[in-house]
């Protein structure tokens, strides 16, 4: 397997910089989730790693080897894209065997490796089927088998699950992670689904306008997003701005948020407490409960504070005692304050 590194990648299309000085390390054997809004450069970055896009400047290094002079077919990369075009007239087994044929792998070896790859994606019994005789999830597994059968050093997945419905997607996420663990391949996974990225990845990177604005372990980025874009893009965030003074942050309703010197802070909805009686904590705001939304195990409270909508998420059983609407207090532990760049 191999570590992948990109260094100072720039790729322009006319005046647009699809990649604007991107440097990242994708650890050997790791599962790296690339996140970002549509048009942020995710696909361009994957295509630059694969060799389909030639960067204007910067380098791609796979396993310590700069690959600018290595063509796509010699970069030892497996790929799965959202519209994973399988060959419709070929059987599942022949679809998977295709890459091996191109590489002139002898027939006996080919059969064995196709069988192993199909086994790995739990389609060992369906090798003779045609793609149209498979479900969406099964076709996705064939695409995975086809990508890994050549034993690549790196697996690039560009929104591979986004065509699947929610329930199937969750099954396939678990499946994808299992396969990746089993073969230990360096994987770079593009998604616009933040929950999917948090679930699957050991590292995530967030792209915006061709730049990496933040990267790290999912929990670290979630807990300390540092800027408003990341805070809002990755999960939900209630934002407060105010004037820093000696004792903390003075908000416009006059309340003082202790323990921070930032002008702009955020609190995740799940870190807010809600009560009808005034809590005995420094970080508390008087507000109005507008609506309580039942969501099964969890519930959401929609709150109006100074004309702004604040969201509180809690266990339904903790929220049951509340009236449906009326005056409330929201509060949070000081260590749950997230300081953001102003
Ligand atoms: P993402 O995958 O994050 O949605 P892309 O990498 O596909 O974003 O695209 C990044 C930006 O580069 C977009 O603005 C897109 O329109 C532009 N772009 C991508 N490929 C080309 C191309 N071949 N020609 C011109 N513009 C392109
Ligand atoms: Mg894309």
- CATH arch. level architecture of the largest domain: 3-Layer(aba) Sandwich
The major sheet is characterized as: 6 strands, mixed
CATH superfamily of the largest domain: P-loop containing nucleotide triphosphate hydrolases
Query: What is the alpha-carbon Rg in Å?
Result: 24 Å
**Backbone shape:** elongated
Secondary structure: helix percent: 25-40%
- The parts where pLDDT drops under 50 for at least 5 residues are none
How are helices and strands ordered from N to C? EEEHEEEHHHEHEHEEHHEEEEEEEEEHEE
What binds here, in terms of ligands, is: adenosine-5'-diphosphate, magnesium ion
Strands across the major sheet, in which order? 6-7-8-3-9-10
Care to describe what's here?
This protein has a six-stranded mixed β-sheet, with helices on both faces. A five-stranded antiparallel β-sheet has the order 16-20-17-18-19. Strands 2-1-4-5 form a four-stranded antiparallel β-sheet, covered by helices on one side. A hairpin with a 2-residue loop joins strand 12 (243-245) and strand 13. It has two domains: 4-230, P-loop containing nucleotide triphosphate hydrolases (Rossmann fold, 3-Layer(aba) Sandwich), CATH 3.40.50; 236-340, OB fold (Dihydrolipoamide Acetyltransferase, E2P) (Beta Barrel), CATH 2.40.50.100. The chain has helices spanning 42-50, 92-102, 107-120, 136-148, 166-183, 194-200, 218-223, 228-233, 316-319, and strands at 4-13, 16-26, 31-35, 57-62, 65-66, 77-81, 154-158, 186-191, 203-208, 211-216, 238-241, 243-245, 248-250, 256-258, 264-267, 273-275, 284-295, 298-305, 308-315, 326-331, 338-340. The protein is of the alpha+beta class. It is elongated. It contains nine helices and 21 strands. Helix 2 packs across helix 3 and helix 2 packs parallel to helix 4. The structure holds adenosine-5'-diphosphate and magnesium ion. Residues 42-43 line the site of magnesium ion.
